[in-house]
Amino acid sequence: MNTIYLLLGSNLKNPAQQLSIARKYIETQIGEIIKASSFYATAAWGNTNQPDFLNQVIIVQTAFSAAKTMETILTIEEDMGRIRTEKNAPREIDIDILFFNHDIINLPELIIPHPLLQERKFVLIPLNEIATSYIHPILLKTTQELLEICPDSLDVQKKDII
Fold first, then answer.
1. Is the pLDDT confidence value at 162 over 80?
2. What does each C-alpha distance from 59 to 46, 131, 134, 152 come to in angstroms?
3. How far is CA 146 from the centre of its chain?
4. Which domain holds residue 126?
């Protein structure tokens, strides 16, 4: 079995509901969610003229390869109504692969670990909640260490959502 670390994000419709729907798709189409962070709200990153995002990191066990996981994620996003327009646009759902086991994958269509995760507190804070001691396979720092040196100044707020 493979262990995947995924970031879920939404800032359209009802973001908490969108994340819930995405988790159901992931469980039925990719594999069992074995751990999930709390929900975190943050201002949009990059294109800031849009609603705040709600994010969550989950850890999933799957028999799929990284490529098959990515293919399935794109189908889930499409099924949930995501239409890719411009970079950093508002979206119903965004599912990013942060890590796949401890693999390093560098293909035109798939880069793992996610190349910007160490620059984004909205990724590192929920990741640190559930995988504090995970060591980034390229940077060779734990999630906690990456969070401590992260240059991102965006405010990330934990949200109590059931």
1. no
2. 26, 9, 12, 23
3. 16
4. 2-159
